[in-house]
Amino acid sequence: MPLPSVTGPTTANASATTDPKEKSALDKDAFLKLLVAQLSHQDPLKPTEGTEFVAQLSQFAMVEQSIAQSAKLDILSVQMTGLASNEATALVGKDVTVRGTGIAFDGVSATGASVNLDAPAQKVTVRIQDPAGKTVRTIEIGPRGAGAMPIVWDGKDDAGQPVAKGTYGIKVEARTADGKPVSTTQDVSGKVIKVSFEKGYPELVLDSGVTAPISELVSVGGAVR
């Protein structure tokens, strides 16, 4: 015996409200109506197993729980973003160190930078590059032990002439006595003058001209994070 068609909620009823709570209640009500209609019009000769209805109810409950959890996670994400933003703005005016590959030159002196060597190196080469990626100064450094190594640059090119003001890149190559490369990480220090949210997350803008996401923050003052 063919089952009669069951009509669910009309479009007008479904769009009558935008309240999430009312929408959730409507969905549950519609599901129960469909379940009752299914029971009322099932074939007496081939009744639906009770376990199937239990499974349907269980699936519906799981969907409801998933929707509720997603809503709570969205709220938590907004709150965490707000906390991160507050923490970032509190850094304005403070001296910080961030992971970065830039060093600024104001026409008089260059800002400080440092490199952390993961292992002792027999030879370390530091290349100062302009925004176009051209090397303007090559600094050869002798053997260095593992750990922090400051980079000092006088703002001059290889010919001994002062370069233009701006932010320059730092490229470091370190090798052991047998020529094997040594891994490095680079740090840049400066005072935070602004916090930017243009990319959707906090970025620290230093007076040295370097911009880095707050996730690259290494230390504030002398406290390592």
List keywords for this structure.
single chain; 225 residues; alpha+beta; eight-stranded antiparallel β-sheet; 3 helices; elongated
Could you describe the 3D structure shown?
The structure is a single chain. It is built from 3 helices and 12 strands. The longest helix is centred in the first third of the chain and has 40 residues, at 50-89. With 225 residues, the chain is of the alpha+beta class. It is 29% helix and 31% strand. The termini are far apart. Strands 1, 3, 6, 8, 9, 10, 11 and 12 form an 8-stranded antiparallel β-sheet that branches. A 4-stranded antiparallel β-sheet has the order 2-7-4-5, with no helix packed on it. The model is unreliable at 1-18 and 20-26 (pLDDT under 50).
Distance between the termini: 72 Å
The average pLDDT is: 74
Name the quaternary structure: single chain
Helix % is: 25-40%
Number of helices: 3
Q: Rg to the nearest angstrom?
A: 32 Å
- Can you write the helix and strand succession as a string? HHHEEEEEEEEEEEE
Q: What best-fitting shape do the alpha-carbon axes yield?
A: elongated
What structural class is derived from the secondary structure elements?
Answer: alpha+beta
Strand content: 25-35%
Reported for the largest beta sheet, the result is: 8 strands, antiparallel
Strands, total number: 12
Which consecutive residue ranges, at least 5 long each, have pLDDT under 50?
1-18, 20-26
